[in-house]
């Protein structure tokens, strides 16, 4: 990997599957118990905040019983040892990358551990149990909500992601179906700027045709192998 200096890694639900967190569109996916419209839209939050909070409370509670897997640990090792630029952009809202030790990362769809004030934008750690319309400590408004990017809302830190895509030499996508934009379009942006592109996924994805190379298999096997390769 002599000509690779700046790397972007995009991860999706598939990297957490072997930790026991259901993916969204696979068999038994998270959406099967809940229609997307029921829980992941601002309209749903306005119509039935208790259901939305309960859905995320269930997902947050599940975090207590799962552990990072070999793929998370391999990316944390890359983070610690890679001398060039690295940005891990996760679509996931779990905290498994952090618990494995990753530092150079961001959650573009938000995270379960955080509460957001819909009024002033202040964030706070999600305090155990948070009923709907809890009061924001920063501004006093009864406006705390899950810090999750709902469908139709703009993902977080897109400027930072776009800057990184414009300067990366290698774009690696791990465990994502390529079903949701803007993340699904990142591979084409990276290619436009001349990056090499690699997909590590259990199945072919909607974006597989855009990758220079697609390796099919479980992240727990493919990611450690790839990190060994790239660290040389
Ligand atoms: N190893 C590698 N890949 C896997 C594994 C595994 N063990 N298990 C499943 N996969 C792959 C599947 O083949 C699929 O392509 O992970 C992908 C999971 O796809 P989705 O369930 O669609 O999850 P994701 O791509 O992260 O969804 C993107 O959609 O619902 C929204 O906001 C939500 O962030 C999410 C976004
Ligand atoms: Zn506030």
TrEMBL record:
GO cellular component terms attached to this protein's record: cytoplasm
Keyword tags: Cytoplasm, Metal-binding, NAD, Transferase, Zinc
Enzyme category, top tier: transferase
Coiled-coil intervals: none
Residues noted as binding Zn(2+) in the record, renumbered to the chain: 117, 120, 136, 139
Necessary cofactors: Zn(2+)
Residues passing through the membrane, by range: none
Gene Ontology molecular function, alphabetical: histone deacetylase activity, NAD-dependent; NAD+ binding; protein-malonyllysine demalonylase activity; protein-succinyllysine desuccinylase activity; zinc ion binding
Compartments where located: Cytoplasm
Active site, per annotation: 109 (proton acceptor)
Free-text comment on the cofactor: Binds 1 zinc ion per subunit.
A Pfam short name: SIR2
Residue numbers binding NAD(+): 12-31, 91-94, 175-177, 201-203, 219
Enzyme Commission number(s) of this protein: 2.3.1.286
Catalytic activity field: N(6)-succinyl-L-lysyl-[protein] + NAD(+) + H2O = 2''-O-succinyl-ADP-D-ribose + nicotinamide + L-lysyl-[protein]; N(6)-acetyl-L-lysyl-[protein] + NAD(+) + H2O = 2''-O-acetyl-ADP-D-ribose + nicotinamide + L-lysyl-[protein]
Domain of life: Bacteria
Amino acids binding substrate: 56, 59
The UniProt record lists the keyword Nuclease: no
Ranges where the Deacetylase sirtuin-type domain occurs: 1-232
Homology family: Belongs to the sirtuin family. Class III subfamily.
Entry function: NAD-dependent lysine deacetylase and desuccinylase that specifically removes acetyl and succinyl groups on target proteins. Modulates the activities of several proteins which are inactive in their acylated form.
HAMAP family named among the record's database cross-references: Sirtuin_ClassIII (MF_01121)
Domain notes: 2 residues (Tyr-56 and Arg-59) present in a large hydrophobic pocket are probably involved in substrate specificity. They are important for desuccinylation activity, but dispensable for deacetylation activity.
Name of the molecule in the record: NAD-dependent protein deacylase
Species, as recorded: Sphingomonas aliaeris
